[in-house]
Amino acid sequence: MLIIKHYMEFSTLRELGLQGMRLAQASYTCWIVARSYRGLAVAGRAPVWVVVEYKRVGSIVANPYAKVGPNTANSKAQHAVVRSNSRYTARIYIPPSCLTMKVFVTGSTGNIGTSLVKDLLAHGHTVVGLARSQAGVEKLTSLGATPLYGTLSDLPLLAKAAKESDAVAHLAFNHDFSDFANSCAAEQAAISAMGEALIGSGKPLVGTSGTMSMRKGKLASEKDERDVQDPLVQLRGASEDIALSFANKGVRACAIRLAPVVHGEGSLGFVQLLLKSVLDSKQVAVINDGKNRWPAVYTSDAARAYRLVLEKGTAGMVYHAVGEEQILVKDIAAAIGRKLGVPVVSKTAEEAAEVYGFLAGAVGADNPVSSDWTREVLGWEPVGKGLIEDIEDGLLDGVQVGLKL
């Protein structure tokens, strides 16, 4: 049974026809009933059920709800067609996955953002990407996206871009761990500005957080609560809460929790934490026996999860971009050690703090996470390399070791 989530409004048959053409170009099948039409069949790969509402200014002049499908289009059209030259508005309810959208993407020049931009464009959407440098502008232009020069602190700019778009994907974050609180505050202000611009629109707003926010030591699902005891989790977790709060204000607001290790296509994620000890001491340091677990996901798989949530996510829900539920950190360290020719050493929590600073807690975190529900409801199936395989195949080749996660 189709749950109606979106509608587009047309006041002329020309506008209606243009949207039909877009649907055809996106390879969807949709039956549209319009004045003087007996049923417009748009060729494609899968039938989509729609509900059409016909109105004349001030009054309803025909059956307001005509369910139309491939086998009944003509007969239903007889009941819905209005034989008049008056101006009408046709409201066509179509699942968002059938529509090509103009998507505003923050963080669009990062590794995950770049992969998302490519994926959105490949599926018929148009993209406006936030770029904070000339290099970013040139990168987005080369991909076929429209660059918007600015930063997360340009709140009026963000609000305007969100309002003028059909959907918003927020991936940007200032990874300055020396001023983490202010980075979180800036992100929260940006999310609020974009969310407020979308109030009452029904448009998608997809925020970003991480699975490291979940309670540690057990397999965490999308429905589980965050770790409310961790002050760092609370700082970043507030961004997720702010994004989801707009679900009660007429916005299709969702959140994606990324695995701490997003890898491939230039991404390293938390693997870079372990590389810090290689840079400092020519060894890979794990905490105690290294049997704590991290989830991981390949970059293009994570990007595809964002697109699917934009297209068909449910307001107020959280999704997990997790390809591998649990990988022992000692196994990750061993793969790094083999590749770089350095030993793996064990450190106590106190010793690890000297190597990793305040991020030692993340290195020692036990964070197994499930994405079963996300896969089921989105039809998302990760296909990228596993983390260990990726390391062995050259993930670390030519990578500049640093702390930009």
From TrEMBL:
One of its GO terms (molecular function) is aldehyde dehydrogenase (NAD+) activity. InterPro entries: NAD(P)-bd_dom_sf (IPR036291), NAD(P)-dependent_oxidoreduct (IPR051783), RmlD-like-bd (IPR029903). Transmembrane segments: none annotated. Residues 101-344 form the RmlD-like substrate binding domain. One of its GO terms (cellular component) is cytoplasm. Coiled coil: none annotated. PANTHER family: PROTEIN YEEZ, PUTATIVE-RELATED. This is RmlD-like substrate binding domain-containing protein. It comes from Coniochaeta pulveracea.
